[in-house]
Amino acid sequence: MLKNFRKKVKQWFEQEDRTSQITNNNKWEEIKRSDHGVDTRVSYQYPTKRSFPFPLDKDNEPTIRRAVRTNERSTNIPDKSPNIVEQPFVFEKPERSQPFRASDVPSPVYGFQQRRMTVDLEEIPAFIRKENREESFMMHHEENITISANEEIETEEKIWSDQEVQVDNRLPAVLANKEELESNANHSNEMITDEQSVTTRQKDMEPGYKQVTKKDPQEIKKDPFNVRMRPSDKKRFYQTNQDRKKIDHTRPQLHLLDDTNEKTTYDEAWIKEQGEQLKHTLEQFQVRANVINAMQGPSVTRFEIQPESGVKVSKIKNLSDDIKLNMAAKDIRIEAPIPGKNAIGIEIPNKTSQAVGLQEIFKSNAFRMAASSLSVGLGLDITGRTVVTDIKKMPHGLIAGATGSGKSVCINSILISLLYKANPSDVRLLLIDPKMVELAPYNEIPHLVSPVITDVKAATHALKWAVEEMEDRYKRFVESSTRDIERYNQKVEHAGDKMPYLVIVIDELADLMMAAPQDVEDSICRIAQKARACGIHLLLATQRPSVDVITGLIKANIPTRIAFSVSSQVDSRTIIDTNGAERLLGRGDMLFVENGARTPLRIQGAFVSDDEIERVTNFVRKTAPTNYLFEQEQLLQQMEEENEDELYPEALAFVLENNSASTSLLQRQFKIGYNRAARLIDSLEQNQVISGQNGSKARTVLMRNEEVIR
Questions:
Q1: Average pLDDT over residues 427-443
Q2: Distance CA 625, CA 16 (A)
Q3: Mind listing the pLDDT tens digit for each residue in 629-652?
Q4: Cα–Cα distance measured from residue 397 to residue 555, given in angstroms and rounded to the nearest whole number
Q5: I want to staple 127 with a disulfide (CB 3.0 to 4.6 A). Which of 44, 221, 255, 656 is the partner?
Q6: Which of 159, 177, 204 is the last residue of a domain?
Q7: 334 near 318, Cβ under 8 Å?
Q8: At residue 534, does pLDDT exceed 60?
Q9: Residue 408 annotated as lining a ligand binding site
Q10: In terms of domains, do 557 and 679 share one?
Q11: Is 402 marked as a binding-site residue?
Q12: What is the pTM of this model?
């Protein structure tokens, strides 16, 4: 009995397993036949055959058969790929209703626009062309944004339509994944909302609407909407924008300067002719030498002469006037020998000199890569290389030359370089201009510590203020245990107490030396001796390079010199301790002796016009307000107070009390000398306390105690 029951139970389980296996096989065959494009999925089937865990005692109990659950799948799933009916291609030849006309071919440079003439570009200033280019770029950028917005709308519509087709085709197959379907529906709703917002933006940006401003392209470009930024990224992005804004608002742009003229081509024929003539001239004087090289600069061309063995260098140097005569040159300069070469340099003026613009200097890598805020561009040397120097390394400079040789232009180029390189918080300027007109355009710029000083007495007192400032800075160095201004600024950087550099520019030293030679010389020597470490630098310019103006103390403490054209060898030796400045051509031709250099370097100085200075200074005035430390009137008033004698109040009270005044009376009363008593009497007369001298009669007291008190 028990065996029969076990046999029936076993048959029942085997029949159920066969039924489920047949059902599963039919289901997979239907899925494979219905759609081959369905994504691959993984199904897990666990075994259902297992041994019966316990015996049953009921033998006669009828077998209960449960209905087999089958997962029915709809077979009416439409095919994903639509039925495409191929149609035969019919070529129809277009009919020409109009005669043949050549189509416009866009230029790779100008497109469909007309080519601009170079004459029009030369007539328009550089800074105006810069503004026009910026406006045209903004308008072109707006059109590109409108086109890109339309393309985004079309792309999103196409994506949305494709997603709708995919959802409709797969809807019966993914009924079990309701959550995934709901998330897709929510995503599609979000895309519809984005599409509507983009559509509204596109309508606002159509040409018919005038709501687009020039700031919109920059905002769309700089504000990412689909990028997740970490806090550190946001901080770095914010600091970069702040630094960019600070640079844009404090540094002038290059388009404020005039465009540089086109450089003249290298005149090989003229150079070859001059070289042959120079060699022929030397042969006439029995000098055996060969021309081995020639370098053409902006204003002069240097021929390198290599003498044969046995020829003295002094013999060639003594032939300078003869070479000048045979070459028909304005003036020549002989550099014998050239440092680092076994050759002698003979510099001959070019047929036409070329002007050097300040914009060309500022565009060079030497100026742009200079890290110091006190870097200044001087000009181009004979080889055409940009010469850039650092005022920190000078640390003080002397500029001298005859009238009209280019001293004031050199000072202007140095000041414009400082305005381009330094902020008002980094460099401050003290300008002293006894001529009253040379440095007047720099008034009211934020770099000044005071207005441009034009009075000689105020200039003397301003130099004394600079000496006091130097002493005060050294006291602060002692308190902070630092040695120079760079180390001090590194220590106090977190406190915001930054110490700026101070550059003192004196345009005409001879006028100051005539007014108060001893005071001016003492102040200049003290500043030149000690002020380098505390960040105070001197730039002196004079048109009278004589010994009484450039004294031995001043020249010994100022190592960097710039010599322009002078009239004699004596003046040249006074400036640069050697001959050569008397051979210069003028108009910016200079000899530059840097600190530590033994030989002078010939440079064609950069030219800056009055219009360029005005444009740059007007731009700088708008960046920051002025912050004067003192003014010229305050200096004059302070000088008057210092010149007043300490005994003047006591002498005034004594004269009013005795109702009489004389020099001998003040001498006896205050026990002073005749000169001091006479100065007190003159001060009382100037202030209308006593009357003037009237022969042998005594002076009359004109004021009373009540009037003085009032």
A1: 93
A2: 96
A3: 888 787 777 666 666 778 888 888
A4: 10
A5: 255
A6: 204
A7: no
A8: yes
A9: yes
A10: no
A11: yes
A12: 0.61
